[in-house]
Amino acid sequence: MTTAQPEQIAIIGGGFSGTMTAVNLARLSRQPLEITIINQRRPTARGVAYGTRRMEHLLNVAARNMSAFPDLPDHFLQWLRTRSEYDMVPEMELRERFIPRMIYGDYLRGLMQQYLQSPMESAPVRTTFVEGEALDITPNGDGATIRLAVGGRVEAERIVLATGNEPPAGLPGSEALQAHAAWVGNPWQGWENRLPQSGGTVVLLGTGLTTVDAVITLRSMGWQGVVHAVSRNGWLPHAHFRGIEYPDFPPPGIDLADLGLKKLLELMEQHCARLRELGANPAIIVDKMRPHTQRVWQRFTLEERLEFAQRHAARWNVLRHRIAPEIHAQLTTAQLTGQLQVHAGRIEGVKAEGNRVRVQLSGGKALTGDLVINATGPNTKFTATSSVLLQNLLRRGLVTPDETEMGVRVDADHTIIGRDGERSSLFLALGPLLRGTRWETIAVPELRGQARRTAEALLDQPRPVAVEEPVMMEYMI
Ligand SMILES: Cc1cc2nc3c(=O)[nH]c(=O)nc-3n(C[C@H](O)[C@H](O)[C@H](O)COP(=O)(O)OP(=O)(O)OC[C@H]3O[C@@H](n4cnc5c(N)ncnc54)[C@H](O)[C@@H]3O)c2cc1C
User: How many CA atoms lie within 13 A of 142 on its CB side?
Assistant: First the structure.
């Protein structure tokens, strides 16, 4: 059965996910559509990740795996060839390069320009860009009205939620620090102009990718002070590495999704041990899991998902979210010179100490900083969202948390399931909001497939949803 084509589509969030949903709509639609992209704070298309103005911030995925289109795997590589600094780089080398994120943002802006801002006269899709925050949505007979913080409203028949990562969750005591000059609650909002002039101490709460970004920023500014980074385990991300062919995983005839968490972990440990014996990096197993991760996650029981998130996610993340070797080398240098000091410890609380902030750690240890940055990673408890829009949608029952409460509940084709358990006729969602149902839903290799599938669902062009997009390995062979 075919349904009528939607005419007015609003996309809330104009990062990679929202912009590429619109680009795919423009590529695929044969019907007239009016798309409105509502985006706050960040330059549309670049979003948080690719809005950086620092060439030192590199992609953490090799160029060969950063095409914005699932059906055109070399698209980004071909685009890079249009730039003079890359046109003479040998193919094999270019494929493995970690390109500045700012340049990747240029790529996305180019796609936005081509498909959304200057489409051909005959193209059926028209796009309007609205800068500002969407605050609330009220359904009406045929669609809904979106209320904007800047005043004004947008009417739509279908709405895509592509609001991206949440800022980090607060920490004990951080409420009282909101106005303190030495406290940075959201690491993705500029803090560079709040650094002490000469020397001093910066404390980074977290040792993941956001901390890596901050350290690279401080070094590229030539800032001379000391940086402390602290997390429960004190693990910094690993570097990408040159791997080996390892066809033994998954073992032939075994469907990883059938195993359940316990047996899967045992199998992974077994193969990690074998790789260590071969003198190879066991993280190869994490990479080889990637084409299967979403299916495995979906087959886990709720208890298995929660156990994985609580007990194994930290180790998974440190092996999975690797960084460019040149960025890793800078971290190592910073550690060797004593500029970067990494600590393992539980953060018990933060409080003002004059014009500085004191971080209390377990075991009686404390760190005091002239600037303390919450880099603990995005808040993953959806019901504690700081987004006014999402709070309103939850309150109205228009969206509902998935079983793990990490994100929204969606069907396989990205349609939101409301509080009544029914498929929404209004809402779809993609990106980090799908963490609880998909687990791997943060990086371009997953998001490009989601953007295409969301566009197909909006256009009523369903594909067999069991087909998972193959994810290319991230290590270099
Ligand atoms: C620092 C950093 C580096 C990264 N590096 C890489 C990398 O190298 N490779 C990779 O594959 N992935 C990387 N990622 C992962 C990255 O999250 C994804 O690649 C992708 O950019 C996510 O896009 P998104 O559109 O889902 O979210 P976002 O980029 O967060 O975009 C969401 C947008 O929605 C807006 N928004 C939210 N709520 C509202 C509202 N109510 N009204 C209006 N607008 C709203 C936000 O302001 C934002 O502009 C990185 C992430 C970060 C944070």
Answer: 9
The CATH number assigned to the domain with range 7-166+380-458 reads: 3.50.50.60
Common-topology check for domains 7-166+380-458 and 174-238+322-374: yes
The CA distance from 312 to 205, in Å, is: 20
For the chain, give every domain's residue range: 7-166+380-458, 174-238+322-374, 256-320
Q: Going by DSSP bridges, is the β-strand pair 183-184/158-161 parallel, antiparallel, or unpaired?
A: unpaired
Which atom, in ligand 1's list, is nearest to the CA of 132?
43
Cα–Cα–Cα angle for 256, 432, 44, rounded to 5 degrees: 140
C-alpha 28, offset from chain centre: 25
What is residue 386's three-state secondary structure? coil
| Residue ID of nearest Cα to ligand 1 atom 51 | 49
Express each pLDDT in 166-197 by its tens digit. 999 999 999 999 999 999 999 998 899 999 87
Per the DSSP assignment, residues forming a β-bridge with 373 are 184, 204
Q: 206 Cβ partners below 8 Å, 6+ apart?
A: 168, 229, 230, 231, 374, 375, 376, 377
Angular region, 392: left φ>0, alpha ψ -120 to 50, beta rest:
alpha
Give the number of other Cβ atoms within 10 Å of residue 185's Cβ.
21
Which of 193-197, 213-217, 269-273 is the least confident region? Answer: 193-197
Architecture of the domain spanning 174-238+322-374: 3-Layer(bba) Sandwich (3.50)
| Ligand 1 proximity of 418 Cβ (cutoff 6 Å) | no
Q: Report the residue among 101, 147, 163 best suited for mutation to probe ligand 1: largest number of ligand atoms under 8 A from its CB.
A: 163
- Retrieve residue 158's tokens: 């279908």
263 backbone dihedrals φ, ψ, rounded to 5°: -70, -35
Quick one: which atom of ligand 1 is closest to the CA of 445? 11
Residue 362's Cβ-count burial label (10 Å; 0-12, 13-18, 19+) is exposed
What's the pTM? 0.92
Chain segment 320-364, per-residue pLDDT in tens: 889 999 999 999 999 999 999 999 999 999 999 999 999 999 989
